[in-house]
Amino acid sequence: MSKAFSAIGEEREVERDEFTPGLEPQPTWCPGCGDFGVLKALKGAMAELGKDPEEVLLCTGIGCSGKLNSYFESYGFHTIHGRSLPVARASKLANHDLEVVAAGGDGDGYGIGGNHFMHTARENHDITYIVFNNEVFGLTKGQTSPTSPKGHKSKTQPHGSAKDPIRPLSMSLSAGASYIARTAAVNPNQAQEILVEAIEHDGFSHVDFLTQCPTWNKDAKQYVPYVDVQDSEDYEFDVQDRREAADMMAETEEALYDGTVLTGRYYKDENRHSYQQEKQERGDMPNEPLAERYFDDDYDWERSADFIDRHK
Ligand SMILES: Cc1ncc(C[n+]2csc(CCOP(=O)(O)OP(=O)(O)O)c2C)c(N)n1
Ligand code: SF4
Ligand SMILES: [Mg+2]
């Protein structure tokens, strides 16, 4: 429970359950699915931050993970496969008063939506991106995904995958994300703490969330035991140092497939301006939400061509 300012400016307590829809649909996730852990951590994080459901927009992709906003009370946009990020960033730019969270699977975000992931990180849009990493295409019945380990057997790779898996943390760092973390559904307290930090961060926050899929990925490790790199004496690195973070990410990505599950915060750059701030500093983005102009009948609309001084 935590405090929030309501629409009329009064402080009030916020409960985790305010993010549970009044008419709660029966979750269609399988028993034991890691996706329940993401839902719980996100509800807890929003309540801890004192957010009202009407201040939040949750954009999801397609997959078992994409069902998240059916079970989460807020504004929601269930987009098409791999396209949660373009919708999320446009929404944030049009109404920067909204707290915008995008979420989807490893196939959705690192596969079909990989291009959007790379450029949203590069541009440092001020949104939080949660990737449910279960190492398979869950919804479509267990095909190999970009994070499936080499040799992983599935319907699409019956002799074992011949591909090396993607390195999501390293990829995010080189693309330009300014907050990068990994957590796991089996570690709900750490997951909530990390989501709170990610949402509070001004810039693109990427959380690789390990979610077990007991139905289609039985040979995958269930992510226990896990190690929190911040709590363990075996790991010493500075999350603000790009090179040290890169080394720690590489070690983490290697270790996962050798059976050691490392989680925690990997990188944080608090000095980098978000895309919205950069645009505002250049004078080509208004400070008030575009959405407010739309409802202002007296607003004098400019065309983008009017901004160009043709005599220069
Ligand atoms: C353009 C397009 N291609 C393929 C599909 C079929 N499809 C639906 S979900 C999915 C994969 C989901 O895997 P992932 O993103 O890892 O999510 P999970 O179900 O594991 O949470 C695919 C291939 C689709 N819906 N749209
Ligand atoms: S198929 Fe896997 S990812 Fe989908 S709901 Fe079931 S356990 Fe979860
Ligand atoms: Mg998946």
Automatic annotation (TrEMBL):
Domain Thiamine pyrophosphate enzyme TPP-binding: 62-208
Keyword Oxidoreductase: yes
Key words, A-Z: Oxidoreductase
Signal sequence, start to end: none
Pfam annotation, one family: TPP_enzyme_C
GO BP term (any one): organic acid metabolic process
Basic and acidic residues bias: start-end ranges: 9-19
Annotated Gene3D superfamilies: 3.40.50.970
Annotated GO MF terms: oxidoreductase activity, acting on the aldehyde or oxo group of donors, iron-sulfur protein as acceptor
Stretch list, region Disordered: 1-23, 141-168, 269-293
Cofactor entry: [4Fe-4S] cluster
PANTHER family per record: 2-OXOGLUTARATE OXIDOREDUCTASE SUBUNIT KORB, 2-OXOGLUTARATE OXIDOREDUCTASE SUBUNIT KORB-RELATED
Protein name: Thiamine pyrophosphate-dependent enzyme
Species of origin: Halobacterium litoreum
